[in-house]
Fold this protein.
Amino acid sequence: MIQPTLLNRTLIRFNLIEKVRAWRVGIPIMLFMGLPCYMMLISVIDSTEPEAAAKNVWNIFNNASIYFLLAYLFISDGLLTGRPTGEPETLNLLFTRPITRTCYVLSKFFCGFVGSTTVLSISVALTFGVATALGIVENPIDSPFILSIIFNCLSFSAFYVFLHSMPSLLGLVSYLFFSGCQTVGEIMSIGYSSSAPTFFKYVKDAILFFNYWFGDVFPSCVDFSLIASSYYACTELIVVYLSNLSLFLFLAILSLSIREFSYGSD
Amino acid sequence: MSIITVDNLSKHFRRAKIKAVQDVSFCVETGEIFGLIGPNGAGKTTIMACLLALIKPSSGQIKIDGKSPYDFDVKPLIGFLPERPCYNRWMNIHQFLTYHHMLAGMPAKDREKDIKEALEAVELEVDPKKRRVKELSRGMLQRVGLAQAIIGKPKIVFLDEPTSGMDPLGFIMIRKMLLRFKEQGTTAIVNSHHLLEVEKVCDRIAFIRGGKIEHLGSMDSFALQGQDVSLSWLPLASKNSDEIDVLLGELALKHDCKIIESTQESAKVSSPDKEHLAQFIQELIANNLMVYEAKSERRELVDLFLNKGENQ
């Protein structure tokens, strides 16, 4: 008798191994692995200040879009199928199999996390190797640096699983809304002026309102090297981080649980 | 013993304001081939989706092997062929069947044997490791879908339009597969528009229209819902063809029969049951029409399907 589990080994195998064998996913992953060390190579060789150039290259690992794209590669089938949202209709058939919706969400989250952490670990190792070979003495690889990568992989995987579990249009709207709350809100908060024309003032107020309440929902990169010095900021960030992580996973499970999969044309 | 029981199942789509299924009740016996037939929009697919726990019923109760369809223990019992081939297109056939074999919780040591058997059962003669799902034709996709449905050796198979996109050889293969299910004691629920295949293989059928079951029973009971008879009589000098037409019309009206076609010496009559037909023939004879032949014609399911549609 099959027992319900939290992680499904079939989903893990197909998302972490079988999918990567396909060139459409395999090549981008190779690029993610190799690009930072290639950049290290050309930046250092071409620069008059190699240490500063190397530092800039290491900043790549603090870029939110890298984490988001890696989570997308391991969680969604979009790149393989040529459809941006993957193949949500395959869920109809999947959920007639002995797999719970919680297990589906957690397995996808696990694949996103393990896949992106592995790719970035290899990338960091390769970049470190190239930097050392080029005589760069300073490197940022320490516990906060590694913790930052792990935490970022976790948060972006959770966020992408949340988007992936929503119906396609709602997922896109959620992405635009949360990213808008964060980025537009931050832009608006700069140069806020009370003498602005009334209409624009209201628009600004509305955007700032959403930024205040939802601006932290869209994951941003956590940098432990920066926050380690401040206890208060660290505590606040970790609370926000953990609440967002659990919220995304909870919403993903909830969304799949209440969704109906009407597959027919009748 | 019933393996599936459905009691007063209703499903309303509130947003679309559609009552897709209304108070539907039926049961399916173990090892039975049960057909769900009806015109487009009748609610067949909605019933199947409720049985598969893909959509939640608005009211009513479903039991599969004594448990709710949402119960985890029910899932390993079922195999499902969807109407639309919503498969993982990027996988090759072997990967796709491996994926579903693993999902069904089948032992890894039997995997290659089970995949081979499933492909043989659906008569798919391609290299499963070289052909991707997205490269397959509609008929081949349907065969892969069928292989997927049986790969977990299910006790209950749900087949939604199994012959969709199939060639005549595919029809024969499906029929053979359904007969094999009967031999093995596997229960099958077949949702189909291809009535001929339903008629030949199903033990019982439910005719659904407007979200309600209009008829439920064996194929024979379904056929007895109506009776078609070809009548022939000796030529009459005393009555011309117009008079015969008038007579046939009057008697048909009197006995709830319908004249499908008529000539001066014969007529094809449809009656609601045997009693009405017997009275109709008796009165024809009483009116000096010397009936010498009455050939009963078993109604094809397709005729009943159309008639039920027309009568609504």
Summary: The two ends of chain A are 35 Å apart (CA to CA). Residues 158 and 248 of chain A are 6 Å apart (CA to CA).
